[in-house]
Amino acid sequence: MTDPTATFIIRVSGDSMIGAGIWDGDEVIVDRSMNARDGSVVVAMVDTELTIKRLRLGVDGAVRLVPENASYPEIVLEEMSELVIWGVVTRCLHRL
């Protein structure tokens, strides 16, 4: 944990990230102090929707949020979209 004051836990709802080992009902540890990089799993607010996805940054400046489940589409950020990265997922906690 880089900065305990910038770290929080959020419960996952949905199965869009099962390929990354993140399941419905899991809790993820999120670090707001880390810089999100290409390939990071992030908690993001797109317009008014909160989501957990893999961040993909194109060389052309394109920003995509990619699920780890083929049943879900990528989120391609349009110019008019508002994106706020809440933090980078650092750990996933599964229930037994």
Automatic annotation (TrEMBL):
InterPro entries found in the cross-reference section: LexA-like, LexA/Signal_pep-like_sf, LexA_repressor, Peptidase_S24_LexA, Peptidase_S24_S26A/B/C
GO BP term (any one): SOS response
Pfam families, sorted: Peptidase_S24
SUPFAM superfamilies documented for this protein: LexA/Signal peptidase
Swiss-Prot/TrEMBL keywords: Autocatalytic cleavage, DNA damage, DNA repair, Hydrolase, SOS response
Span of domain Peptidase S24/S26A/S26B/S26C: 3-89
GO molecular function: DNA binding; hydrolase activity
The keyword DNA damage appears for this protein: yes
Family per similarity comment: Belongs to the peptidase S24 family.
Protein's name in the database: LexA family transcriptional regulator
